[in-house]
Known about the structure:
- The protein is mostly helical.
- It has a single domain (4-209), classed as DhaL domain (Serine Threonine Protein Phosphatase 5, Tetratricopeptide repeat).
- Helices cover 68% and strands 2% of the residues.
- The chain has helices spanning 6-22, 24-34, 39-55, 63-78, 80-91, 105-123, 133-146, 151-168, 192-209; strands at 4-5, 102-103.
- The chain has a two-stranded antiparallel sheet with strand order 1-2.
- Helix 7 (133-146) packs antiparallel against helix 8 (151-168).
- The protein is globular and about 50 Å long.
- One magnesium ion is lined by residues 31, 35-36, 38-39.
- Adenosine-5'-diphosphate (ADP) binds next to helix 3, helix 5, helix 6 and helix 9.
Amino acid sequence: METLSVNKLKEMILYVADQIIESKPLLTELDSAIGDGDHGIGMEKGFLKVKEKISAMNPSENVYDVFTATGRALLMSMGGASGVMFGHFFAAGAKNAEPKTFLNPEDFIALMQKSLNTIKETGKANIGDKTMVDALEPAVQAMKMQGGTSFIDLFRSAESAAKEGAEKTKAYQAKYGRAIFLMERAIGHQDPGATSVWIIFRSLREFVEK
Ligand code: ADP
Ligand code: MG
Ligand code: MG
């Protein structure tokens, strides 16, 4: 699959939303260990709103409208720091992007690179700070290495890098968010936001493999 249409992208986002909603128990469990236990609840709330907005979206010829609508729905409904971050994940890269009727792998890499930049500028987190950046940055790097060949190869490489990055957060103390107060007691626990990033890329890969 070399390009994705507006309708395919809508289907893809709906699939991602269902997978995140299904992962609520895992995300809640992870955030209960090192945070306030609401990450699964917030993500569920956010992606229910995404499903509502994407299903009711006005017909569009621009693939970036799908990402903007997704990010806005998360930003509006999730609240908190992670609402802003996951809003940026989808919407920041679409901002001011030249309208297109089909998205290709190179477009997706550029979109994710822009989103990562905005997330880092906003939240100030870097690799090793035990946040979603620990999964997203390696995923973006892996996609750039992979290059714009096919969506399957692209999402496979992003998924495996995000998974590895999320697992590495177990070894880190937190520098942002509530886990900061745990100091070394946060060690041994995987970051919930990084886990969500992995689930998103895993879902993208599953969708194009279906
Ligand atoms: P809250 O911490 O407000 O309860 P959530 O539980 O939904 O929000 O999300 C927590 C996740 O947010 C963390 O696991 C982490 O990945 C992410 N996060 C927190 N602070 C930052 C930051 N400054 N930059 C990037 N991600 C962050
Ligand atoms: Mg929380
Ligand atoms: Mg909270």
